[in-house]
Amino acid sequence: MAQYDNIEHDPARGLFELVLDGQTAHIQYRREGDVLAVLHTIVPEAIGGRGIAGALTEALVAYVRDAGLRIDPRCAYTEAWFRRHPEAADLLA
Question: Above 60 in pLDDT, residue 80?
Answer without folding.
Answer: yes
